[in-house]
Design brief:
Blueprint lengths: L1 E8 L6 H12 L4 E9 L5 H11 L3 E6 L5 H11 L4 E4 L11 H6 L7 E5 L6 E3 L3 H17 L12 E4 H6 L9 H12 L3 E5 L1 E3 L10 H15 L2 H28 L7 H28 L1 H18 L1
Helix pairs in contact: 1-2, 5-8, 9-10
Length: 312
């Protein structure tokens, strides 16, 4: 078995050598492995220091983007280069301890194709994480997790182990952090087994976090609505129907009291709210049916991608 570890990096000069060395130390227990560092357009000494590691260790490879394209693009670049039977993805800041890597690999049993290092499942924990970031992370995982079919407590984390077959079977589109839930969504739709193991997520000790809270939150919300359109359309439709119902009750009250004026704008407002609410709920139903058809699309993509690989 060959193990490939992919480490996306962006301005990680403080962590690059330490991260590579710690990952390499853990992987030495495996006879065949590779470490793929993807420099995502860093403008500090990340590429220089990673190049040094490459010159000293034949198991380390270095890929570089000319500009910062996002975690998703960096991971996709690494996936294309990886040759391992098992692919590990991990953060460059060692917020997840590298000693968990064998634990993830061992959990890839006969029924499991993806193993997630989860800090939010029973037995997992977090340490030294800023309160705001931790709150946003927990909420994002709950919201995105609710939109997905499988019961996964950590859907946005990057620390995972994949069988190569999984990544050979799905077409990935995301360039940002939403690539992590995208992989789970598509793999689950095709029928791959997903499992979580408890890990500890620690706070960054060196360098600055590259996570942009605003853009990350927006991208995860958009992914959620794409997965489960009724969460958006249903909420808006029900709110409009509720407003229409309240307006109708008020008009009925005025009718009972004999003070109803049919020419009042409230009459038209009530009708518009009710009709708009019903129409938006119908849009949500149609969007949900379209979303359910994606599974068939993913299966066709899997067959096409595997066929292209065999032809190569």
């Amino acid at each position: 078995m060959k193990v490939s570890v992919i480490i996306p990096m962006y301005n990680e000069e403080e962590n690059v050598l330490k991260t590579i060395n710690e990952v390499d130390t853990v992987l030495k227990t495996y006879e065949n492995y590779e470490i793929i560092v993807v420099d995502d357009g860093s403008f500090d000494r990340t590429f220089e220091l990673a190049s040094k590691a490459v010159s000293e260790n034949p198991n380390v490879q270095l890929l570089k983007h000319s500009s910062n394209m996002g975690m998703g693009k960096a991971l996709r670049t690494g996936f294309k280069k990886a040759e391992g039977d098992v692919i590990i993805t991990i953060d460059a800041d060692l917020s997840y301890d590298t000693s968990y890597i064998p634990k993830l690999i061992d959990a890839l049993d006969g029924e499991t194709d993806i193993v997630i290092g989860s800090q939010y499942m029973d037995g997992g924990k977090t340490e030294d994480i800023p309160k705001l970031r931790l709150f946003i992370s927990k909420m994002a995982n709950k919201i995105v997790g609710y939109a997905m079919a499988n019961n996964v407590s950590t859907v946005t984390g990057v620390f995972r182990a994949y069988r190569m077959e999984v990544l050979d079977s799905i077409e990935l589109d995301s360039n940002g952090t939403e690539i992590n839930p995208e992989i789970l969504s598509k793999a689950n739709a095709i029928g791959f087994g997903i499992k979580e193991v408890p890990v500890t997520l620690g706070g960054r000790k060196l360098g600055e976090s590259k996570v942009k809270i605003k853009s990350t939150t927006i991208s995860h919300l958009l992914f959620t609505f794409n997965e489960k359109p009724m969460m958006l359309f249903g909420a808006i439709g029900l709110i409009l129907l509720f407003i229409g119902l309240i307006s109708a009750l008020y008009l009925f009250y005025e009718f009972i009291m004999g003070t109803l004026d049919p020419t009042r704008p409230l009459m038209l407002f009530m009708v518009l709210m009710v009709l708009s609410g019903i129409q938006i709920l119908i849009f949500g139903f149609v969007a949900t049916q379209i979303s359910l058809l994606k599974r068939e699309v993913y299966i066709v993509q899997k067959e096409n991608k595997l066929l292209r690989k065999r032809l190569k």
